[in-house]
Amino acid sequence: MKLLVTGGAGFIGSHFIRQVLRKYPSYSVVNLDKLTYAGNLENLREVERDPRYQFVHGDICDRALVREAARGSDAVVNFAAESHVDRSILGAGEFLKTDVLGTASLLDAARELRIPRYVQISTDEVYGSVDRGAVREEAPLRPSNPYSASKAAADLLVSAYWTTYRLPVLITRSSNNFGPNQYPEKVIPLFITNALEDRPLPLYGDGRNVRDWLFVLDNCAAIDLVLHQGVPGEIYNVGGDTEVENIVLTRQILRLLGKPESLIQSVADRPGHDRRYALDCHKIRAVGWKPAHEFGAALAETVRWYREHEAWWRPIKSGEFKTYYGKQYADR
Ligand code: NAD
Ligand code: DAU
Questions:
Q1: Which terminus of the chain, N or C, has less C-beta within 10 A?
Q2: Is residue 24 part of a domain?
Q3: How far is the CA of 99 from the centre of ligand 1 (A)?
């Protein structure tokens, strides 16, 4: 099988590519990535010399390039996105371009080239905040921020290509991923690396918001399953079944690092901050998936990875990242 993976230099995409090349000796992967601030070829060192792997530097909005990269593919798996909620609150433009128009560009290429499978990597955030219970795939979309609105728009477009053209599309909507190689703007790597530097951990609002945590390799296994066994036109929720309040998570990280709780700094809440996400995952569980990693052990493994890979995150935090977040959040 020949795969076109987009956004493969980012967090989840790079784990997926490494997993696929390890698991399927006969597969090849073309990775099309723009290398935004979040794309990092260090994540793919392990495979860069593998003859089955090819990197193409470019934008999924570039329709000619996308057609060229996709030619001959058996499937497209689209991870490429602007993915951080806080950045989307500062400006929606890039989110609309990549997450919506980029998805349209990939769908059109898949249609023109008659690619037999298209997998869209989406998020539980499209359902909006879930006060009680858990949402199924048919639940209405009520995105709360520009990031989730752009992802919801993309999902609707993907589904419309199934309804209108019978393009064989599939969508996965996962909960919050964590693990090695996650850009240190997301809460877990941000808090681990801040704590390692004895810097404050900026906890939004009352710290009682709830996220459902999923180890990145479990999400990759779910995407693999949907790619191979999912039913075209269908959507699959992928949750970790591990709901944790942010304050509990923060204390757990500090405990793992042997750092004091005095590092926790309450800051103003994120505007439009969703209180809780919770997915009903019966559908994908019926296909044969469930998370294989226990949260506490996977969090400890993640903490260990950041401890042992300072060379990966220190350059990120001392560069553009610092000015961006230092300016926006330090003085709140
Ligand atoms: P990430 O920000 O780590 O990586 C995104 C990648 O996309 C980067 O390599 C970046 O260079 C690339 N990219 C951005 N714009 C591009 C463009 N125009 N053309 C080509 N490449 C481009 O993101 P992630 O956390 O790995 O998330 C991957 C996907 O999974 C996203 O679609 C995100 O919405 C979704 N998702 C993420 C999570 C999570 O917890 N991280 C949870 C659910 C869903
Ligand atoms: O739910 C899936 C989504 O998870 C993905 O679609 C997104 O791409 C991904 O970024 C993530 O979104 P969240 O907004 O849930 O993740 P984030 O790590 O930004 O925040 C997690 C929680 O921690 C959230 O309640 C906000 C809080 N938080 C976050 C940051 C960055 C803080 O309290 N302080 C912080 O500095």
A1: C
A2: yes
A3: 9
